[in-house]
């Protein structure tokens, strides 16, 4: 190839992605013209050709549906399976002797926790909850412990006042069982993959794939096995939420200070001694972080699992959304957010405590005191369980609730009437949403539908090859073909168009705010708590305010997706920019670079990797939200899954679920730099 | 003069033999033809005579293997401080880890008190590490979640000692290394020097026969490093424990070592007392290494003196006298004070004379340069002990 040496060098580096990137900053003596530079970069040429093929073929053919000859009938075998399941669920040995035990155990454990809460009464639950939060924060008079304790008290009281005590307790009971199971399962898996390389090799791709899969996709297979109900919800939650703690436990075990481990070995520690005395204690911090993430994912899933009979707050939201009762949904949503904040703050505080510098001499007394507090909590639980019903009602007294539903509904109506549409010149939120649907989503969708399937597959392959390896290209094409094969091409293109629109908005918003956060300290200070809270909120909750603002339509789903995915993108971008080698920044300053020159000349190029990671995260999160938006008029694949779930229609829901996973894997591979992938 | 090396060495080793006479003369560690090769099919290399002669780069090109330790043999005597010195990458840290098989040697023999370490099964090896040889690390290797006392007691805990007993022992050790009152702190709250004292106390707590130090003070500030070196010297004076000390710092090696093994590319280039190494470098590499050493502080009068001439032999009673092990720097002071030459007296017999000229040649390193060229073979003989 007769390309200039400079671009050759670039191609030699496999990590260098990005088709449109300029040449490396150090230019050769003769500056090549833009055209010759472009022609010297084969990847860019191929990409442009592929895009041209797509555009031209779309214009020429006008309709690019997947050929009917290449589809398979997946519905009838699934219907048969569904029939078989319905017929055999109560008789077949697989259910009687295996799965039934799971569902019975799940059912009875959740029931027993619920009845425990019930017999403890609302006073007992509030006291114990506050005490646990306080103990998690350190069980002392420090600001942190008092703050978590106060948060606990406030959250329980507000949930009571809002009139959602009962569903809150249901959610909490499901959470308790789910978190315990997920933590134990995750810890064991993490232990295995932290200690054995073979396990690590097996589990890592599984976890990677699970991370890409939208939460929605976990629900269907479980409904298949366990029918609608608590067991499905619980098991889906456990499966969905155990990877973080497993991953971080393994990471903690593997990244333990080698000097400490060597010292331990040099003193003659056996493998078991080394694990118990050195490796596990050294991994505590990562394990706490994993537990925090697992708990947050549990909450997110427990709420979402109301679709398959999880009950609790999620069910309140789901029902209210279905009936378009924004007030009710918002009240339940607030309770969910409060729970999320409480759980996050408490576990985060418990994690921070590990870093604490203990004052000499105080260690022993403090340790004793902390143990005493946990003992006290255990005793109080027993006590309240025994006499709780005597000192107060099981549930929050009706007279003490305040009804926020009507005022909220009024407010929402006012909003819809006044800023929804009809504002002179500006229009209004609903008008904007309609405009967005008309002028962006619809053309995008028809464009995708007009593109012949082979042209799209070519584009996917080219992007996959440029960004990653031929393997990424192959995976992408296979996923796309699978979607077509299940005769879901048109619906999937609808979802894809939403994802793409959402992604562009997310990345623009995320990168701009990320840059602001990284460069202006005040923005960072304001954004940080906002981002913290947003990242802890379960996906479901984002749908509520969106409906209030723009109504039930595809744009609403995209708006929710952008709000949901932007925090991660902002955070990763800001972090990447801030982590740019200070020496490089200093050098630029000393050469007299302006802020703008610094940003474009130093920070952005050096932070390219983290921006790519942010893009990858954005893709995964946007897809996961766009799919859930099927609940509020997003249509497409998500709607099919919801329909499948609510009507028990396996043949409709299952292929759609698989198509979502396919899209997820494809988009992930296409946005995932092949080497040096950073995980957050 | 050319006889000097042996003459110097004899009394020193005699002294050592004397101090260890009660415990017998068997070496603590006896290492023979030890190899550690990293890379594919590493075990083939030590036995292959066509490969063992190659240089490090040639070996890597030919086989893809790196020989971190190549054909090393030495004995460590009881109660001695044996220093292994070399630049980074010379294989010294690998060597010391091979002694307790924290790194498995590729070939060769390691005997500990006559027991074959390489052939030990898991339990015997664990016993060796738990009770008889413990190590102090460059990066301390402390457990951040434990208090100082619990860190020091860690080795005893591994041995299975009860909590009260091990904490009591650990508290003693904490006092011994000068950390009184800091027992309940966490390692993160201590300075680097204090942390390494914890590491030292942890190694001492199991009362091992041998202490292994892997560049223990490299990560410390120069002043604290000096403190810690004095601490080690004090401990050695008080307890006489055998120590193997790895360092890349020549002055540290000269300060601490009874004998020094100088390593380069995995092999020992020279092995001898600090004085031998400074006075008689085995080759240009060693000579380059010791170029800036203040000779008068390492070389003794025995090496600086000249034989008595006839007139002096007749008049062998007057004037100041010096012991043969007196350092040249001290002799300079004595000679300057007396204004004339001093006699070197050993066992009541005058064995030589030092005067301005002979002392100055040592400081200037003139005469010795010539001598060491001639005496290189002798130094090598010493190295091949």
UniProtKB/TrEMBL annotation, chain A:
It comes from the Bacteria. It comes from Streptomyces iconiensis. Residues 1-33 are annotated as: Disordered. It is a multi-pass membrane protein. This is ABC transporter permease subunit. The chain crosses the membrane at residues 44-66, 122-139, 145-165, 172-195, 215-241, 294-314, 320-343, 372-391, 448-467, 474-493, 499-518, 618-641, 653-670. It holds the Pfam family BPD_transp_1. Keywords: Cell membrane, Membrane, Transmembrane, Transmembrane helix, Transport. InterPro entries: MetI-like, MetI-like_sf. The lineage of its organism: Bacteria, Bacillati, Actinomycetota, Actinomycetes, Kitasatosporales. Residues 168-347, 492-671 form the ABC transmembrane type-1 domain. It is found in: Cell membrane; Membrane. Belongs to the binding-protein-dependent transport system permease family. Its main location: membrane.
Automatic annotation (TrEMBL), chain B:
Pfam families: ABC_tran (PF00005). Keywords: ATP-binding, Nucleotide-binding, Transport. It comes from the Bacteria. This is Glycine betaine/L-proline ABC transporter ATP-binding protein. Residues 54-290 form the ABC transporter domain. GO terms for molecular function: ATP binding. The keyword Cytoplasm does not apply. Residues 1-25 are annotated as: Disordered. It comes from Streptomyces iconiensis. Belongs to the ABC transporter superfamily. Transmembrane segments: none annotated.
């Amino acid at each position: 190839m007769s390309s200039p040496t400079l671009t050759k060098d670039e191609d030699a580096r496999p990590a260098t992605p990005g088709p449109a990137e300029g040449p490396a900053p150090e230019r050769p003596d003769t500056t090549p013209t833009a055209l010759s530079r472009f022609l010297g970069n084969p990847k860019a040429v191929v990409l442009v050709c592929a895009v041209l093929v797509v555009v031209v073929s779309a214009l020429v053919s006008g309709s690019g549906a997947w050929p009917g000859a290449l589809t398979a009938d997946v519905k009838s075998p699934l219907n048969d399976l569904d029939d078989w399941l319905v017929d055999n669920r109560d008789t077949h040995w697989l259910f009687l002797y295996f799965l039934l035990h799971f569902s019975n155990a799940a059912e009875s454990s959740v029931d027993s926790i619920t009845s425990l809460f019930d017999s403890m009464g609302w006073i007992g639950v509030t006291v114990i909850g506050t005490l646990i939060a306080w103990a998690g924060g350190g069980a002392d008079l420090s600001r942190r412990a008092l703050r978590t304790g106060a948060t606990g008290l406030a959250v329980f009281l507000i949930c009571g006042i809002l009139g959602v005590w009962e569903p809150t307790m249901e959610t909490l009971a499901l959470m308790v069982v789910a978190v315990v199971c997920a933590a134990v399962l995750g810890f064991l898996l993490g232990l295995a993959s932290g200690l054995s390389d073979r396990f690590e090799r097996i589990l890592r791709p599984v976890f990677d794939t699970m991370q890409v899969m939208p939460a929605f996709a976990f629900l269907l297979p479980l409904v298949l096995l366990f029918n609608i109900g608590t067991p499905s919800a619980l098991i889906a939650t456990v499966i969905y939420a155990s990877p973080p703690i497993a991953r971080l436990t393994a990471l903690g075990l593997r990244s333990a200070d080698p000097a400490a481990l060597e010292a331990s070995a040099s003193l003659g520690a056996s493998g078991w001694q080394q694990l118990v005395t050195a490796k596990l204690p050294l991994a505590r911090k990562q394990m706490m972080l994993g537990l925090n993430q697992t708990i947050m994912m549990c909450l997110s899933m427990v709420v979402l699992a109301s679709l398959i009979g999880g009950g609790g707050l999620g069910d309140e939201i789901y029902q209210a959304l279905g009936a378009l009762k924004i007030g009710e949904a918002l009240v339940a949503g607030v309770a969910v957010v409060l729970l999320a904040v409480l759980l996050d703050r408490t576990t985060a505080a418990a994690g921070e405590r590990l870093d604490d510098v203990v004052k000499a001499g105080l260690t022993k007394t403090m340790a004793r005191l902390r143990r005493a507090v946990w003992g006290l909590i255990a005793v109080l639980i027993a006590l309240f369980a025994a006499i709780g019903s005597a000192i107060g009602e099981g549930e929050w007294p009706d007279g003490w609730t305040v009804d926020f539903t009507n005022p909220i509904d009024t407010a929402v109506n006012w909003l819809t009437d006044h800023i929804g549409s009809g504002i002179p010149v500006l229009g209004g939120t609903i008008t904007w949403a309609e405009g967005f649907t008309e002028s962006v989503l619809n053309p995008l969708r028809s464009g995708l539908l007009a593109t012949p399937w082979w042209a799209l597959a070519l584009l996917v392959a080219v992007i996959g090859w440029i960004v990653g390896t031929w393997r990424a290209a192959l995976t992408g094409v296979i996923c796309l073909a699978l979607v077509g094969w299940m005769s879901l091409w048109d619906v999937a293109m609808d979802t894809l168009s939403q994802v793409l629109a959402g992604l562009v908005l997310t990345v623009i918003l995320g990168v701009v705010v990320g840059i602001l956060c990284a460069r202006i300290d005040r923005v960072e200070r304001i954004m940080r708590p906002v981002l913290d809270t947003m990242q802890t909120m379960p996906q479901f909750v984002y749908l509520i305010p969106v409906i209030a603002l723009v109504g039930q339509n595809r744009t609403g789903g995209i708006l929710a997706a952008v709000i949901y995915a932007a925090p991660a993108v902002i955070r990763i971008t800001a972090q990447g920019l801030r982590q740019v080698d200070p020496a490089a920044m200093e050098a630029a300053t000393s050469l007299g670079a302006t802020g703008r020159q610094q940003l474009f000349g130093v920070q952005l190029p050096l932070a390219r990797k983290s921006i790519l990671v942010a893009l990858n995260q954005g893709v995964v999160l946007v897809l996961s939200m766009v799919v859930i938006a099927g609940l509020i008029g997003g249509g497409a694949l998500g709607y099919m899954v919801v329909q499948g779930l609510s009507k028990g229609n396996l043949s409709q829901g299952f292929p759609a679920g698989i198509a979502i996973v396919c899209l997820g894997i494809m988009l992930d591979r296409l946005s995932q730099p092949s080497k040096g992938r950073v995980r957050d | 003069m050319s006889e000097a090396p042996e003459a110097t060495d004899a009394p020193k080793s005699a002294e050592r033999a004397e101090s260890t006479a009660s415990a017998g003369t068997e070496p603590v560690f006896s290492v023979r033809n030890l190899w550690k090769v990293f890379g594919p099919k590493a075990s083939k290399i030590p036995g292959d005579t066509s490969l063992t002669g190659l240089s490090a780069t040639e070996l890597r090109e030919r086989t893809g293997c790196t020989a971190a330790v190549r054909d090393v043999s030495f004995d460590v005597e009881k109660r001695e401080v044996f220093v292994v010195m070399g630049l980074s990458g010379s294989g010294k840290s690998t060597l010391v880890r091979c002694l307790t098989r924290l790194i498995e040697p590729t070939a060769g023999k390691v005997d500990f008190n006559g027991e074959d370490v390489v052939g030990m099964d898991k339990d015997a090896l664990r016993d060796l590490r738990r009770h008889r040889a413990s190590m102090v690390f460059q990066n301390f290797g402390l457990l951040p979640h434990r208090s100082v006392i619990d860190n020091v007691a860690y080795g005893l805990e591994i041995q299975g000692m009860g909590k009260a007993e091990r904490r009591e022992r650990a508290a003693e050790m904490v006092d011994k290394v000068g950390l009184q009152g800091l027992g309940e702190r966490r390692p993160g709250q201590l300075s680097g020097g204090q942390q390494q004292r914890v590491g030292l106390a942890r190694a001492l707590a199991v009362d091992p026969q041998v202490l292994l130090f892997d560049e223990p003070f490299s990560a410390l500030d120069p002043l604290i490093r000096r403190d810690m070196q004095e601490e080690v010297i004090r401990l050695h004076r008080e307890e006489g424990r055998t120590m193997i000390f790895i360092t890349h710092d020549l002055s540290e090696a000269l300060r601490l070592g009874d004998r020094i093994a100088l390593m380069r590319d995995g092999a020992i280039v020279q092995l001898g007392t600090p004085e031998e190494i400074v006075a008689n470098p085995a080759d240009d590499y060693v000579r380059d290494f010791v170029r800036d050493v203040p000779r008068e502080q390492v070389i003794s009068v025995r090496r600086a003196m000249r034989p008595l001439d006839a007139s002096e032999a007749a008049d062998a009673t007057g004037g100041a006298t010096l012991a043969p092990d007196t350092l040249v720097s001290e002799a300079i002071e004595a000679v300057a004070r007396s204004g004339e030459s001093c006699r070197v007296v050993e066992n009541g017999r005058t064995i030589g004379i030092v005067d301005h000229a002979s002392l100055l040649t040592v400081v200037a390193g003139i005469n010795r340069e010539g001598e060491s060229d001639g005496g290189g073979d002798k130094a090598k003989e010493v190295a091949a002990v």
